[in-house]
Amino acid sequence: MPEWVGDGDGPRAWARAAAAPLARAGRELTGTLLGLCTAALTLVWVLAAAAALVCAPFLPSRARPRFRGAVTRWAVRLGDADLARLARWTGGGTVDPRPEAAPRVAYLLLRLPVALVCGYLAPTALLLVAVFVGGAALELFTGSGTNVPVLMPGARMHVSSINVGLLMGLLVLAATWLVVALASAVDRALARRLVGPSDEDLLHRRIDELTSTRSGIVRAVDEERRRIERDLHDGVQQRVVALAMLLGRAQRGHDPERAARLVRQAHTETRVLLDELREVAWRVYPTALDTLGLESALTEVAERSPLPVEVRADLSSPPPRELATAVYFVAREAITNAVKHAGAGAVIVHLDDADGALDLRVLDDGRGGADPAGGGLTGLARRVRALDGTLAVHSPRGGPTTVRAVLPLTTIRSPHAPGDR
């Protein structure tokens, strides 16, 4: 059985939770120091741009465009490098920049004062922290600590110099973290505002996305209709023809025993036909999804599978019907692929609705190498994208294969959810 590695509630999970703020502060500090490097390069670029303006009239006419182009390309590369720094070290996410160079130039120039000030303060503060904490540690090790008088209104007290050093180090470290966090927030805000797509660009992208997903849904529906037609033609229709032939032979015959035998065969064929009709209807849309809910419908899929399938669902409330339907068909197709193509021995279906999204992960221990663009997942990917979701397939050679669908719960606000009647 494949193992699903979760966060858990043990000591390691607690240690990771405690270390997370320190790791985040370390990443932001590293990003700030790297930002000082890009700020220094920005200063060099400003000098080069000024030189270009001064020298341009004296250059040959053919060289001027190349000179200006080199300065512009430098600005674009600097801007892209700093955007990559934000995404990698400050948790700002990936900004999809506009193609023009002017937004990057504005971003680099506006962040320059903040970067220089923060780039000066952060190393200085770290040096002070090292002095305070190092001095306290040295006094503690050598036993040379002294009492420092502290005067307060109406009180006079003596505090160990070791404690004073540690306290000052912690205060400077906290102030440094606040300055670094503020500088990172300013950089992220400037990047989103100046370099990111405008509201008009986002609107055009949304229109293009809706147009694409609408046509994708039409193609997915057509593919599903063709699949149903094949199921009916290759299975049900053949059974109906065989049933009609058996009944016709029984009706035309004159031997009662032979007619009775043909009727019994027709009855058996009828039962098989009903089973196939139920199977086709179940593949089109399972009634359990409406009557019992998503978790029960997935459990039914697991029970029908020839492989051991474990369903782990952690839902705070029933999801909207449209999202539940999309997740159900993705899970069923992933299980079917694991049975038919992956050579898997077991499958795990994990479902939760944390972080405001319906998150489905299907893991199998098969041979891997699945093609995300092939099979029935293509049409399902269109359905997921139409709901503003994402469908990803990770299937390295040798396995395991993970199919993940994430659909935001804010996309659909349905008054009725499956299993909520």
Q: How is this structure best described in words?
A:
By secondary structure, this protein is of the alpha+beta class. It folds into three domains: 16-197, no CATH class; 219-284, no CATH class; 292-408, Histidine kinase-like ATPase, C-terminal domain (Heat Shock Protein 90). It contains ten helices and seven strands. The protein has helices spanning 11-55, 63-89, 102-142, 161-195, 199-252, 256-284, 287-291, 294-304, 321-340, 377-386, and strands at 147-152, 155-160, 309-314, 347-352, 357-364, 390-394, 401-408. The strands form two sheets. Strands 3-4-5-7-6 form a five-stranded mixed beta sheet. A two-stranded antiparallel sheet has the order 1-2. The longest helix has 54 residues, at 199-252. The protein is elongated, with a radius of gyration of 33 Å. Residues 3-9 and 413-421 have low confidence and may be disordered. It catalyses: ATP + protein L-histidine = ADP + protein N-phospho-L-histidine. The chain crosses the membrane at residues 33-59, 114-138, 158-183.
Number of domains: 3
Helix content: 55-70%
> Taking all residues together, what is the mean pLDDT?
77
Question: Helices and strands, in N-to-C order?
Answer: HHHEEHHHHHEHEEHEE
Per-chain topology:
Blueprint: H1 11-55, H2 63-89, H3 102-142, E1 147-152, E2 155-160, H4 161-195, H5 199-252, H6 256-284, H7 287-291, H8 294-304, E3 309-314, H9 321-340, E4 347-352, E5 357-364, H10 377-386, E6 390-394, E7 401-408
Parallel strand pairs: 3-4
Antiparallel strand pairs: 1-2, 4-5, 5-7, 6-7
